[in-house]
Amino acid sequence: MIIRLPTYSGIIEDYKLSGSRLSPKPPKKPFNRIAFAAAHVVTDPLKDNDPWQGRPAIDWDNTLKIRHYLWDQGLHLAEVMDTAQRGMGLDWETAKELIFRTIKDAKLHPLKPHVVCGAGTDHYDIQELNSYDKIITAYSEQMEHIEAIGGQIVIMASRAMTLYKRGPAYYARVYKKLIEQAKEPVILHWLGEMFDPSLRGYWGSTDFEKAADSVLTIINSYSNKIDGIKISILDQEREEKFRARLPNGVKLYTGDDFNFPALIEGDGKHFSHALLGIFTAIAPAASQALEALAMDDGKMFNKILMPTVPLSREIFKSPTQYYKAGISFLAWLNGIQSHFIMPRGFQSSRQISHYAEVFRLADKARLLIDTDLALYRMKILLGLHGIV
């Protein structure tokens, strides 16, 4: 099968599909790595609301269908994280309902998936969060809600901490209070500035080594109350060095969507678990590669997973914060959601040449689950852009 696709050089070229694909299936063996897929949300295109202001109108059927699709393949779920457009269209009131619906469905799922949920400060205007007490109050409200419903807390990075240029001692004071008040061990979150430019200088320094020392001081002080830390800095060497410094029992959850195969496989002494947005887009490959790793078949692990790296690098290319569009696009191509409409019209954040390249790379990674459907939907998008 051949389709004409635009390129970054501005021309239209024929592309011949490989015809090879991975079929989604449940794993036959439990994974030996913890794998959370950070899932996105889908907007209801029929609701009468302002797409750029106010609360998004969530398409609950499509949004929850995505979560069941991930669970059916043995993956756990990271809910209301940046992949779900926290701070970029998804407000806290909607996030609360999403957490409730997701955890309710997870409890009924036969594979009993685990759900972790992001707790932040985004339900307050950032200008209000100018003191220690206000920051604690904001975080506490979200943390208490998550634990009351039965979710595990991921303490997300707060933009207020960098806006007011807090130093390492302030971070230590805030996180001490948050960690101590949590009922169960929490996951910390280090989201790099490539994902959110406003988080530059998190942990009290723009110097990576100083920031690492700052968060490690917190982790070492409260390691019994910290499950792990998710790091999204897109730097394999720095993540590996940081991982080796963690105390026993504290996990490293990689958020590196560029180098995840090597980080998950490990260096023979240390390895990373996964909390990745790309796992939503490449779920069949992620699941089947992790199954191979659990069977001690590193060769098959890499054979399945390495072809997904160029696809992930394209989806997460700069400006990285727009990666959610590529993930939703693939879910639409593969029939996991019925349309390609995102909160605040986020599907318009990437150009048609990007979507064409995602299509090519998904095909090469064997991730176009239903080729006929993917071709049909790709042609609809091309036609919208005047490409026949």
Please tell me about this protein's structure:
With 388 residues, the protein is of the alpha/beta class. It has a single domain (25-344), classed as TIM Barrel (Alpha-Beta Barrel), CATH 3.20.20. The protein is 43% helix and 12% strand. The protein contains 15 helices and ten strands. The chain has helices at residues 60-71, 92-108, 132-149, 159-163, 168-181, 208-221, 236-244, 260-265, 278-281, 283-294, 298-305, 308-315, 323-333, 352-364, 371-384, and strands at residues 2-6, 12-16, 35-38, 76-79, 115-119, 152-155, 186-191, 226-232, 251-254, 273-276. Strands 3-4-5-6-7-8-9-10 form an eight-stranded parallel beta barrel. Helix 1 (60-71) packs across helix 2 (92-108) and helix 2 (92-108) runs parallel beside helix 3 (132-149). The chain is globular, with a radius of gyration of 20 Å. The model has no long low-confidence stretch (mean pLDDT 96).
Q: If you consult CATH, what is the topology?
A: TIM Barrel
How much of the sequence lies in strands comes to 5-15%
Number of distinct beta strands:
10
End-to-end CA span? 16 Å
**Number of helical elements:** 15
Write the element-wise H/E pattern from the N-terminal end onward. EEEHEHEHEHHEHEHEHEHHHHHHH
Secondary structure: helix percent:
40-55%
Structural class: alpha/beta
Which homologous superfamily in CATH is the superfamily? Answer: Aldolase class I
Taking strands numbered 1, 2, ... along the chain, how are they ordered across the largest sheet? 3-4-5-6-7-8-9-10
Number of domain modules? 1
The CATH architecture would be Alpha-Beta Barrel
